[in-house]
Amino acid sequence: MSRTHYCGEVSEAAIGQRVSLKGWVQKRRDLGGLIFVDMRDRSGIVQAVFNPEISAPATAIGETLRNEFVIHIEGLVVARSEGQVNAAMKTGKIEVQVDHATIINAAKNPPFAIDDQTEVSEDLRLKYRYLDLRRPSMYETFKMRSDITKSIRRFLDNEGFLEVETPILTKSTPEGARDYLVPSRVHEGEFYALPQSPQLFKQMLMVSGFDKYYQIARCFRDEDLRADRQPEFTQIDMEMSFKTMEEIIEMNERLMGIMMKDVKGVDIDAQFQRMSYTEAMDRFGSDKPDVRFGLELVNVSDLVKDSSFKVFSGAIENGGQVKLINVKGSAANYSRKDIDALGEFAARYGAKGLAWLKVEADGVKGPIAKFFEGEAATALTERAEAEAGDLLLFVADSASVVADALGALRMKFGKELNLIDNSVYKFLWITDWPLFEYDEKDGRYYAAHHPFTMPFEEDIDKLDTEPQNVRAQAYDLVLNGYELGGGSLRIYRRDIQEKMFKTLGFSDEEAREQFGFLMDAFEYGTPPHGGIAFGLDRLVMLLAGRTNLRDTIAFPKTASASDLLTSAPSPVSNAQLDELSLSLNVQNTEK
Amino acid sequence: MSRTHYCGEVSEAAIGQRVSLKGWVQKRRDLGGLIFVDMRDRSGIVQAVFNPEISAPATAIGETLRNEFVIHIEGLVVARSEGQVNAAMKTGKIEVQVDHATIINAAKNPPFAIDDQTEVSEDLRLKYRYLDLRRPSMYETFKMRSDITKSIRRFLDNEGFLEVETPILTKSTPEGARDYLVPSRVHEGEFYALPQSPQLFKQMLMVSGFDKYYQIARCFRDEDLRADRQPEFTQIDMEMSFKTMEEIIEMNERLMGIMMKDVKGVDIDAQFQRMSYTEAMDRFGSDKPDVRFGLELVNVSDLVKDSSFKVFSGAIENGGQVKLINVKGSAANYSRKDIDALGEFAARYGAKGLAWLKVEADGVKGPIAKFFEGEAATALTERAEAEAGDLLLFVADSASVVADALGALRMKFGKELNLIDNSVYKFLWITDWPLFEYDEKDGRYYAAHHPFTMPFEEDIDKLDTEPQNVRAQAYDLVLNGYELGGGSLRIYRRDIQEKMFKTLGFSDEEAREQFGFLMDAFEYGTPPHGGIAFGLDRLVMLLAGRTNLRDTIAFPKTASASDLLTSAPSPVSNAQLDELSLSLNVQNTEK
Hints:
- Chains A, B: It comes from Planococcus koreensis.
- Chains A, B: It is found in: Cytoplasm.
- By secondary structure, chain A is α+β, with helices and mostly antiparallel strands.
- Chain A has helices at 56-62, 122-127, 129-132, 136-158, 199-207, 245-264, 277-284, 301-304, 310-317, 336-347, 375-383, 399-416, 462-465, 494-503, 508-521, 536-543, 574-579; strands at residues 18-31, 34-41, 44-50, 70-79, 94-105, 162-163, 181-183, 191-193, 212-220, 232-241, 273-276, 298-299, 321-327, 355-360, 363-365, 391-397, 427-434, 436-439, 444-447, 471-479, 482-489, 529-535, 582-584.
- Chain A has 3 domains: 7-105, CATH 2.40.50.140; 117-275 and 534-570, BirA Bifunctional Protein, domain 2; 293-420, Gyrase A, domain 2 (2-Layer Sandwich).
- In chain A, the strands form 5 sheets. An 8-stranded mixed sheet of chain A has the order 6-9-10-22-21-20-17-11, sandwiched between helices. A 5-stranded mixed beta barrel of chain A has the order 1-2-3-5-4. In chain A, strands 12-13-16-14-15 form a 5-stranded antiparallel sheet.
């Protein structure tokens, strides 16, 4: 008999019906001659009762069941007696009186319990990923992932976007992150690269007049991994022609609004907050600020520039700045030792020290209080909007160290002091980005986003002369302190693209060899275009309330880029290498 | 002013309105002081008229326009005068009186005309793919591709399938086609492989209880290419648990029915024809027969086994067979020379010769007629249901050569004699496949589908003893003579999977090393499961009426696996190779 219901969906409406269920043994209890089995499938759990008075053969099978056996049962749905009702369970008012039972497949005792309570090492989870994914919270995460893409696809389909697939075997370009390479068998000594994004192909589609493109696209970066990075990741990637930045932003606000309603059932602001990159760095010390709480950075450089406290005045003399955060009402809660620990935390972000003052009714206290007496103290506390009981933490350094260290401290206090309302989703656009970043070590400019980003029209003349002051027509979307994605208007004129490559240090020949097709395309009638890409894995992580990106990917890699389930990567045969005209510079451990 | 309409959508309803259009110059004609511009975007073409009496500045711009310029125009929509109406054009009853015009981007003269009439070499099309994709029929193909995936996704979403992404960086397994390899930087001397299909991962998801999975999945094979093969291709991939073959087939018939209705607007049979592999080979000489026409193969082995024509009787003595096709009414249309040419055609499929007879009122004629006189001739013509004027073509050889050669001849006549109704879509399931194919050259069995296919229950005992007689619980879907895809129930028990690997010649160690995780998984409670995968590229090709798979892929590779647009593959730097601990066995042409 085919399955009539999923386990979790046998409701009171089915009382009096015979059902046929297929699923896994979650738990078996023997009690007073009866056998109770919690039977599980992706939808949830239902209680099956084996009673020799109903069926002796079925009960004999019930006696042999162990956890994770795959079984098929048939039986009558009955109401549980009053005392047996389990209100915490979706199917807690009913049970199934088993009259037929079959073991479809037996199971060994699993290496860890299939539930959301048991703590399991991540390596074990990844090795037995097929068991890990049986845990209800994991299934829920992938259900949500599926729902998110479904919602986004429906929106983009309705908006007239065409889903187009772009190549995975593509060309290596040294600009950007490190490529994964794929040796060619046909073209000896040559390589494909896996794409870091479909950027150039989606631009080509705009040149083709496709007008609106999207793709849920796999992307690849061979970079050292962190908890929020994977070798392959998924982007919600889109591009459109003839649209202004305002139009692109407005459409994506509607997209996010509908998706949040579909997936989380919440209404978010129709218009998102916007902030320039400069303002975000200034107020929050971050280009992806969590604006669900205050605790903003306060610039006191002007107040302390002539201070006799040389750490402050010296930093400013060296072109740096002095900022503080005011941890309201926390003076009494932080001992010297606690603050020393905060200093160590700040040091991880490059701060050479963490100065502090405790505000009291009659002035400020602490080791550096002697430098700030009378009016100096008043000026500081007024600027910091501080009152008695507040703790002021200062960092004096280059602007970027101040931002990093105080920005990180701000986030730390936000969490520890419960300043953040976790039920709130605060979307935020960051705009007015610099087009370039200067790398001191390499002595050259890099593209802050990518080399195809359109500068502000009025800044185009500065590409040659003062690249550090060129602003980009770029926009990042931030959610609760995480970068969800970023986009920009693109360069669509050959002369600007050539200038861009020149500023990035490309010779004419290098530019032509790597991006000649793009610049050629610009000469055959290219429309203005722009787009955006969102990180799907991170979006799922945030909406599913996960903290590890790996929990949002069905078969992720470890921090050393291994798949513990299938044992990839692995050695290959010499015959395979020969076909590719490759030799290893290491001992081959041929399999 | 933002765009108000797509060009092809300015209809009579817009008469009297001012519109704002952005698009490409398809063609410009100057006539009697006016300038007529056919303006194009993805939706089609509209006529814009530049008239100095309406706007002298706009007309001055109109005079500078050339093909493929990107322009923005604004103006009033007016009805064309009676004589100017173009009924062949969607927008042929109206035109736009331009009062404002801007050149957004100029264009060089393209290397080929942007229309569907001009013949262009494929290399040139691929090099300038961004121009090739501007051709209306190309856009229509990708629109259809997008519509097909949209329809299929909607169906599978409604059926409770979960879309799950599986890895692209995975493990190399020597069984099957050649893998594309990706060297690992972190694990020196080791490699990932790009997946030939998500087969094992989708099976793992079934072990996880995900129950119903689908993915529009990119797959990769490093094989020598033909017109209908690409290094990367896309599968509509699905898998489900606890379903019988009948249930899987029935669901996929509904899927195809809805998709055909959505995309082509046609109603197809609710239940598809079914045929065993043996019957298909026997009647049509093909495992993917086009059943839109007859011209079936007729077995005459029993009639000719004692013939004095040694080619026939000898073939049967050697264990082969003799079959014919009856080309109705064609005797008069094929000269000896024509038939010699057919013989050369058959030779490409391995036939050593093509015997023939022309049926006349008083017997059969032709070089071998002397062997078939009186009753022998009658027996043949009766079996062939032949009458005067028919042409009988015979192949005598091994069963596989007979099938290949006559199957190919059948298709050739089907096309040349217009026996095929191209408006018809005939879906057909091929079932009862052999589980193995024996390779004479390698002296071993290979899996006819893949090593995870479930044998018929009643054949499991034959895995060890007579593998050639084991049938597979596999099913292919054929549309109009093309294999759309194939699927099977899968092995879900360790003992059967072990037997399977053994028959395929794996040592225990090899099986464990490559597929240990799969066999382990089978021991932790694996449900019975099965699925299917369809080739999306081929499906698009058939429904869009294309003959070249490359026309269904936005950025395809050539027959030598090159991307002519971006010049991939390409040499990489020695630094990149060093990081991967690789050396080339060929001269490095470092870029």
